[in-house]
Every structure is written in structure tokens, then in C-alpha cells.
Amino acid sequence: MDGLSALCAFVDLHCLAMRESEEADTYFMLLAAAVADRLETCEAFRDSHEIERALIRGFIERGVAHGHIRADISADAEALLVGCSLLGMRMQALVDPAFDPVPVHGALITSIKARLRRPEGETK
Predict the structure, then answer these.
(1) Taking the complete model, does pTM exceed 0.85, yes or no?
(2) What's the rounded mean pLDDT across residues 60-75?
(3) Spatial contact of 111 and 58, defined as CB atoms under 8 Å apart
(4) Cα–chain center distance at 36
């Protein structure tokens, strides 16, 4: 699977599972509490999020290497942007039980493709 497709599949997985896991909800509630109360557990959450950031960055770097993603982007900045978008969606789902992730999911995928996809005819 090319890097852009893998990144989109990763986002799909997160968005589709958003309302399915009480364990995931608990994780994000604990994260919010750790940040709000400046608890020592923030370090563990930071480490966990860095692993996900590296995974996303790897998808992007693979896409650049294979010519599916533009070479002029910052893989790390884009990885952080995608991760923050997913985190924001999770938090919104926690604070608003009526939140419908479907349109946001679609907009996020559209935005990722628009920002990252190498234009037709552009060479590596």
C-alpha cells in the first residue's frame, strides 16, 4: 500500500472506531485529566503520542519516497497536524455526545489528499 493510501486508511480506522471503544474513551479522559492537572502521567501520554506521530510520519515519508506525496512538505509537521486532528475529533466526541464524526472524517481525508498528493505530471 502506498504511503498516502496507508495514511488515509489509518485515519479511516481511527474515525470508524471513534464511537466503538469505551477503553479508548477512558484513555482520552485520562489524557485530558493529566493535562488539566499537570500530572506526571503526561510524560507517558507524550511518549505514546510520539509513537503514533512516528507511525504517521513513516506513512508520509513512504509516500514521498514512492512519489505519491509531494516532496516539498514537512513529514513531521504533517504527521503532527494529522495526529492533532484525530486527537481533536476524539475530544469533541467526549464533550459532545451528539458529535457526528462522519462529515469531519470526510473533510479530513479530503484535506490530507489536497495538501499531500503530488500533482499529476509532477516528477519526483
Answers:
(1) yes
(2) 97
(3) no
(4) 22
